[in-house]
Amino acid sequence: VWPLDDQPLTAGDVSRVTLERTPVQIKPPKSSVRRLHLTYNRLLLLPTSVCFLSNLEYLDISSNALTVIPDYIMRLTNLKTVVAKNNLLDESSFPKEFERMQVETLNLSGNRFGEIPVQFLKMTTLQSLSLGGNRLKNIPAEIKNLTSLELLYLGGNLISFIPPEVANLTSLRYLVLCDNRIQSIPPQLNKLHSLLSLSLHNNLLTFLPREILSLVHLQELSLRGNPLVVRFIKDMTYDPPSLMELAGRTIKSQNLPFSSCDLPSNLNHYLNLASECPNPKCAGVYFDSCVRHIKFVDFCGKYRLPLMHYLCSPQCSSPCSSNPQSDAESEDENSVPADRLQRVLLG
């Protein structure tokens, strides 16, 4: 094993030497090795000698035939980065106590994960999680626990739904959800105020929530390969409001006074969930029943994207047009300055 460069950290590279079960001899002394590359071999199991590298910070074991990460990896208490791309790992491959590791970067793209392991969802030190090119069908609500996460890469999976809990990742700067089966974006993502790049290409999106305009630091939005780029779906449905919603609308729109002593706690909570109709000519509110309304908006004076609005009823006219589903409608959005949104990738 030889150093890769003249940096103070000693790096070990045992890549492409056709290792299978052969013990790995680490030289110079184990205590000085902080980076180790064991890529492009035929490893079926992580060599036990690796776990005696007490100061190891970076481990790359990509492109092997690993099906399990053994418990003795827990001895690497200084480990910050684990890269294990293109192996045969799945949600049962990691130690049950792996959540105790203080890992900051975890890249497991190109494996066989059908779901995100529960251990990963408890690793509050994670800053980067990559699980692209696996078999994930959903994003668990527990993703909200990863509050230090800055990059979440889940491209190339089978995901059809984004839970609103993703909005809890307030440190997130890069969100990659391309090449999935996603049909809609939850409006709660407008809370991701640190987001710089949002990759949504090659999904099934027919519209974007209007709230996406409040992502004030967003610099790149990738949308190519979605139906919204080439066609517009006009099939809109409207469910009549329930009696409870009608009563709630009356109370809120008429500003009728009420207190916690007047109503049961569940009704108090319900009344606090009222959403104001975005039409400035309408003073109405809605709860669960609303009309979906598509408006085409100019981004940076160049791109016209369909954004989703919600109106309180079919009788509530569009604030800008008498034809709320006209694909000729356009709006000047001063809230999207050209120097902020630098790239809108449509093709």
UniProtKB/TrEMBL annotation:
Keyword Repeat attributed: yes
SMART domains, A to Z: LRR_TYP
Classification via Pfam families: LRR_8 (PF13855)
Keywords: Leucine-rich repeat, Repeat
Claim: Magnesium is one of the keywords in the record: no
Chain intervals for the UniProt region annotation (Disordered): 323-347
UniProt-recorded name of the protein: Leucine-rich repeat-containing protein 58-like
Species for this entry: Sinocyclocheilus grahami (Dianchi golden-line fish)
